[in-house]
């Protein structure tokens, strides 16, 4: 029955089995060993790029690690931690809202602030420390999540390895909110799979104030409720009244949490569109100032990339986008993805739809795809040794490519991470 605990005897990674195992075979030791090894590799890569980094808007040439780790959005999070949010929105031309701190939610800088207070560390090392600790926690929870959906221990550990060396995993050790967000998201998915709705309330709230996610998670919860109700109708699984009330209430709560930050920005600035106008400022250099029209952004982006960057007719970009979406939708129904269970697929579908509805595709899209990390469980299924080694090498190579394109700064850089 979904929601029932996995028997300890069914998996070598279960706690009951590990009570008799030596310490180096404990599941959390293995996960943290994988995480530590991945961070050594990524640190070496980042240090090589830092040693070759020239003068840029954030640092001088050849910055030290902590300076290099706090560029780009790290400066915005630092501004939030030090100065908070503006009560008056900045305007670029007296008409359009410019880039400002309202685009960056307070969860991550608040945690870094707390660490700074407790440790007396300055911003840069405190921010990196928070990201590293949260990423390690996310790896641990992700392992338990993969076990919980029924993957073997070795497959779950390899999924964690892919998570730790993924192309955008350098964000696990820089001043970005992604590591904290992924820890909260992995925890939320594990709690959802285990039907622990009460505990989910505070986690969903914290998640909604760390990265935009409340509306997407509410949609996933709505699909979860409908799924459980249909299983009741078919006599497959009980759905007690208490769980019905809690799950529906959690769905509404998550939706409200997703709207809370735009509402706070509206009240604080006196502009009901403060948050969306701020977010739109980041796409203005590509397509100018536009209104937020759901599901239009990706088609605008496909036209821009085709005409401006590739020099081909815009309709070619649109056709390529439609084909990409169709292939992705088919993959969600593949046997490998189905192995991850319905709740993981609900989240992947909900977040993908949310991303398609509101975000503009550009270099930051690689980072915005990180919440789809549970799909790595499907990628980890093949047990061939050469496949697994090849995937790790490929992901490390893609890390180098991502840092070169998105993190490293080359003059007037138009490809932010």
Automatic annotation (TrEMBL):
Biological pathway: Glycolipid biosynthesis; glycosylphosphatidylinositol-anchor biosynthesis
InterPro entries: PIG-V/Gpi18
Transmembrane parts of this sequence: 27-51, 123-142, 174-193, 200-225, 245-268, 280-300, 312-334, 346-366, 386-409
Signal peptide positions on this chain: none
Cell location: Endoplasmic reticulum membrane
Record keywords: Endoplasmic reticulum, Glycosyltransferase, GPI-anchor biosynthesis, Membrane, Transferase, Transmembrane, Transmembrane helix
Name of the protein this chain belongs to: Mannosyltransferase (PIG-V)
Lipid bilayer topology: Multi-pass membrane protein
Lineage: Bacteria, Bacillati, Actinomycetota, Actinomycetes, Micrococcales
Regions annotated as coiled coil: none
